[in-house]
Amino acid sequence: MAALPPRFADWFARNGWEPHPHQLEMLDRAQEPASLLIAPTGGGKTLAGFLPSLVELADGSYKGLHTLYISPLKALAADIRRNLLRPVEEMGLPIRIEDRTGDTSASARKRQRADPPHILLTTPESLALLISYEDAPRIFAGLSRVVVDEIHALAESKRGDQLMLALSRLQALAPGMRRTGLSATVEDPPALARQLACHPDPCKVILADPGPLPDIAMLETAAPPPWAGGGAVHAIPEVLAEVRKHRTTLIFHNTRAQAEIFFHNLWLANEEDLPIAIHHGSLAREQRQKVEAAMVAGDLRAIVCTGTLDLGIDWGDVDLIIQIGGPKNVKRLVQRIGRANHRYNAPSKARLVPANRFEVLECRAALEAAAEHDLDGEPRGPGPRDVLCQHILIRACAGPFDEAALYREVKTVGAYAGLSRAAFDDCLDFCATGGYALKAYDRWQKLMQRDGLWGLRDPRTAQRIRMNIGTIQDTELLKVRMRGRGGQPLGEVEEGFAASLTEGDTFLIGGEIVRYEGLKEMTVQVSRSANKTPKIAVFGGTKFSASTRLTERILELIHGDWQALPEDTRHWLALQREVSQLPRGDRLLIESFPHDSRANTCLYGFAGRNAQQTLGLLVTRRMEEVGLDPLGFVATDYATLIWGLEQVEDPAPLLAQQVLRDVLEGWLAKNAVMKRTFRASANIAGLIERNLPQNRKTGRQATFSSDILYDTLLKYDPDHLLMRITREEAMKGLVDFGRVEEMLARVEGRIDHVVLDRVTPMAAPLLLEVGKVPVAGKGRERLAEAEAEALMAKAGLASGGLQ
Amino acid sequence: MNAHAFTLAGCRLVARPTGALWLPDERLLCVSDLHLGKSERMARRGGSLLPPYETVETLDRLEAELDLLAPDTVICLGDSFDDLGAALALPDSLRVRLAGMQAGRRWIWIEGNHDPGPVELGGEHMAQHAVAGVRFRHIAEEVCTAGEISGHYHPKHRLPRSGTSRPAFVYDGTRLILPAFGTYTGGLRCDTPELRRLFAARAIAVLTGPRALAVPLP
Questions:
Q1: How many CB atoms lie within 10 A of CB A369?
Q2: What is the CATH number of the domain that holds A201?
Q3: How much is the ipTM here?
């Protein structure tokens, strides 16, 4: 193994450190085309990534950009710069390090292009912007290394696909460029390595010592968790006690709304005034920065947070992680737990708090999976084509290109290695002409071929393309401000949530209860409210589905040893076994029972929330067709409960695979979820521009909904590229039809239909679930008519009008 | 009874669920803000290449109204074309179709801010037009006497508790503003001050959709 150069060895020694074996191995393999380091938090991962660069740059002879560092977070880039300055300054290395993100000033960014630093720290979006400039070949000509930090987080999303496409461009500009990935624990390191490497180059996986086993357990609470819901109010006293016992506790939640509600309740119970703050993605940047600063300064005892604190910024001395609610995903849980205790050789400590009875099973299954290091992960499919479309447009901004050369470049990206020439040509045609069956844009193509090379028809288009770079979809968000001139910004809420508010409604944001006053210039105006109980806090927050592996483990647990389960859970399962059956992995349990003068049917598919939701949509549609008059349904990770007017006698025909597929095609095509899926892809592929050169108009008379484009394509051009992409996306994500099919394949028609005269123990919690979905159709129109009439009557107007 | 009937300045009017206005006594049909050729104009200006089907779609819906009602007169209340270039670029097939729709009836293009000049597409071209006690113009006047019918603002409205917002007619005792009939058109919320201030405290919005739904404006 290579020895550290003396200057570096001295520096380690002066600090009383011993280099980790994986740090030396990274140095050893520095000349290889690609390497992936998997190490726990606190394992000196960042330094391991940068050591080869620091050593190569130490003699001061290198001119220009040597190393590009990419992180998923702007804040992380700035944080890493500060951390790197320490070895550079202490060893007196002649190395210039700068960061470049959306927050970097225009003048600094201009200077960086003219005179790049040795090490540039940036994000995937800023890199995509950089490669869109005509001078990209000059900036990157001598690039030696790329370091991708937190690659496990990037690789799960389209941001990762965009980044890898950008790297393929860099590789063409700098053929000698070597790639290094830094990752937390993942389930399939070789798959991640293939995503990182320039296909078909090999990529060595280096596994660091994972450190001592974490100390994870359930948090014992005096009160048992409730039957349904996600508030975890029952655990407040015990959570507070834990906060008191530790220096800094991170309290993770699955959704922003749950975090807000929990924080509110925690604060009401916090009689000692322990300094506790809240942090999530909907809060205003100013608010978040205040919390982050307080955390780094060690002023906070606890932070109620969501996934926004998942990534590796060193937030200070965290010594306990509390996870509220089912962890949904064992890998994410393990990565979260790694956030506690940044000292390499101390075990991290975590406590799980199930928010309801079913989550007791989920938490228990997750604990066992974590202990056995049985991590879940869905394999990533082929590289998404909407991201490729954006990449082609970005490439066009940088200057004319040869289509065959670009195709070869794209095929060096692991995820796109199998891309056919025809599929590539489809994307290119979409970018150039819109790709419509009706050739309408011969004169106004976006890209044109001149002398065999593709380029922008109108050079001004480059500005519009650059303004819309990126794959992150913030659903239409509206800013929330305190009313009055210069009102304090509080955060953001989804447009749909804002639209559902009427004056006087109260909701929680940033731990405060505010009163809705009105909408002014696309900003939600609020005032402080003295109310003790808010109306609701349903805004934002992705609802993750429990992973396939985790639901499998829950089923195993239900049929396995109940010893580790609490008394009341054991009793609950035993009662279910007595009056009905326990659900099994290789069969589908369906229960039918009357309740509340409705016929109820419960399907225990264990396919995850999104798939169970889709199952509900499809089955109720089918029920409507056969006259079973369904009225609504509700879905959780484990089951779908449907209620209607007629008793389901034989559920099997409702679940025939071909029937469901047909219903999906015909009916889900018009569903709001599909439209949302379409909007995301249309944004990424450049059909819809989120940002326009002119400022956004107030009231937005000029813009129209992407739903109209979807409906138009569905009617006139249903096989258009974006429609095909939308249908593909629907197999996963919000629609997740892939998992519905997986479940049906698993049970192969083995359906156990149990008919009972009353609700069963396992179905009872579902009756209490929030998020019930009314079945749309004529009924909904009737409701709207009734409401309109009531409003007219209330206003003293005849339904005829003003006469 | 899917439509909403009312009177303005003594003239009987019917707000159709499609967004078109029908004057039964005059056998007159009025539609506003068709914005034909919008996708062509956006492409020409270096913007998105939108699905180029909206002109056909808009004409399809207009023709369905013509077939159903057989009006003697049609008024297009301005912004019928996204700009004059879009009118010039209209493909021949659609010109023929438009001529067919105009045959045997009076057809009036009211000029709008997007299409101020005359277009070579048959019919008459006017700044405004008065008939049966009401006046048709593209943009509402700041101050007007009873009986003004206009477009321009693309009003939309939603019921507080149900559904998404839909294009809507808005009227009070003095004036009526039509929703946009064109396929690629956005909307302006009825409670936006610049739109709300044009109406008296007591005003009605008529939502388009499967049925015309009348509700008081907040």
A1: 24
A2: 3.40.50.300
A3: 0.91
Cβ contacts (< 8 Å) between A697 and chain B: which residues? none
Q: Are residues A748 and A763 in the same domain?
A: yes
Please check the confidence at residue A492 and state whether its pLDDT lies above 60: yes
Q: Among B5, B153, B162, whose Cβ lies nearest the Cβ of A783?
A: B162
Task: Indicate the burial class of A325 (C-beta count within 10 angstroms; 0-12, 13-18, 19 or more).
Answer: buried
For B96, counting Cβ atoms within 10 Å of its Cβ (0-12 exposed, 13-18 middle, 19+ buried), the class is exposed
A718 and A787 part of one domain: no
Cβ neighbors of A72 (< 8 A, separation 6 or more) are A123, A124, A149, A150, A153, A154, A159, A311
Q: Which of residues 380-409 of A touch B (CB under 8 A)?
A: none
Amino acid A515 reads R
Q: Residue A599 pLDDT more than 50?
A: yes
Number of compact structural domains in chain A? 5
SS (H, E, C) A254-278: CCHHHHHHHHHHHHHHCCCCCCEEE
Partner-chain contact B162 A784, CB within 8 Å: yes
CA distance B153 to B171: 13
B2 and chain A in contact, CB less than 8 A: no
User: A448 in a domain, yes or no?
Assistant: no
Say which residue, A376 or A683, is predicted with more confidence.
A683
Into how many domains does chain B fold? 1
For position A698, what pLDDT does the model report? 40
CB A415 within 8 Å of CB A383: yes
Contact of A774 with chain B, judged by CB distance below 8 Å, is answered with no
Whether A778 has a pLDDT exceeding 60, the answer reads no
pLDDT of residue A129: 96
* Residues A614 and A621: beta-carbon distance below 8 Å: no
A268-277, A294-303, B5-14: least confidently modelled range: A294-303
Q: Using the 8-state DSSP alphabet, how is residue A148 labeled?
A: E
* A234 & A201 share domain: no
| Binding-face residues of A in 691-710 toward B, CB within 8 A | 698-705, 708-709
> Do residues A276 and A186 share a domain?
no
Residue A259 scores a pLDDT above 90: no
Q: Does A392 map to a domain?
A: no
Q: Is the Cβ of B142 closer than 8 Å to some Cβ of chain A?
A: no
Among residues of chain B, what percentage have pLDDT more than 90? 76
Q: Say yes or no: A776 and A632 in one domain.
A: no
Q: Which residue of B has its CA nearest to A776?
A: B163
C-alpha pair distances (Å), A265 with each of A76, A178, A268, A533, A719: 31, 51, 5, 10, 51
Residues A171 and A231 in one domain: no
> Is A23:A9 a contact under the CB 8 Å cutoff?
no
pLDDT digits (tens, 9 = 90+) for A327-363: 888 988 888 887 776 566 678 899 999 988 889 999 9
Q: How confident is the model at residue A802 (pLDDT cuts 50, 70, 90)?
A: low
C-beta of residue B165 within 8 angstroms of C-beta of residue B209 = no
Residue A72 CA to its chain's centroid (Å): 12
Residue A57's domain comprises 6-207
Residue range A510-537: mean pLDDT, rounded: 75
Domain that holds residue B128: 4-216
pLDDT single digits (tens) B157-173: 987 655 568 999 999 99
Q: Angle at CA B29, nearest 5°, toward B28 and B30?
A: 120
Mean pLDDT across chain A, nearest whole number? 86
Among A433, A502, A717, beta carbon nearest to B51: A717
Q: What pLDDT, on a 0 to 100 scale, did the predictor assign at position A506?
A: 80
Which residues in chain A have their CB less than 8 angstroms from residue B7's CB? 803
- Tally A–B CB contacts below 8 A: 131
What confidence tens digit (pLDDT) does each residue in A638-669 have? Answer: 999 998 888 899 999 998 888 888 887 776 67
Query: What pLDDT does A482 receive?
Result: 86
